[in-house]
Design brief:
- Helix 3 (61-86) runs antiparallel to helix 7 (180-204).
- This protein has a single domain (2-204), classed as Cytochrome c oxidase, subunit III, four-helix bundle (Four Helix Bundle (Hemerythrin (Met), subunit A)).
- The protein has helices spanning 2-47, 49-56, 61-86, 90-120, 128-131, 135-170, 180-204.
- It starts with a helix and ends with a helix.
- With 207 residues, the chain is mostly helical.
Length: 207
Amino acid sequence: MINEHMTDVNGEKGDYQGSKLGMWIFLFTEMLLFSGLFLLYSAYRSRYSGDFHIAAGGMDKMIGTLNTVILLTSSLTMVYAISAIRLGKKTMSLVFQFLTVALGLVFLINKYIEWSAKFRHGIYPGSSGLLASPKGEIIYYGLYFFMTGLHGLHVIAGIILIVISFILTKEGRISSERFIVVENTGLYWHFVDVIWVYLFPMFYLIS
């Protein structure tokens, strides 16, 4: 019996470490993707610094700042959700997971409002208004829509993962003994937030 118990414990520990390692490897590949985009942005910003500065002047800094606060707050609620489930506080974890999803949705709504305003003013890839602008501004907005759009897809993926985590927690399949799913989901969500922390100054605070 003792040997069987030890086997179960070691097996669970191995599954936990394997899952955690797998998530870190996945996040590393994601970081490589965004790092390449950051380097591309830096190269074009160096070449067209004046145009980038002018284009950034048309960005809504209020929405950008608000979204930054929202995502940083969502990281905090995700931390509380993980801490709560590890302490066996299921209801509290569910509340914080719900809040994290709500904050993520508010972020997406704000981004939709911001993008919609740009489209209404004829500023989007391939538009006649944008194509009439200097080359640097065209590149700036091309990078802006692609990089923030890609980040938005990651936010959607993160929300889906948290919803799944919420359901599993509610069903009791995530508990103080088995919480690797919510931990890995939290890691992914923090990664999404960190990417935005880089995107915000790149597109909104250019000087």
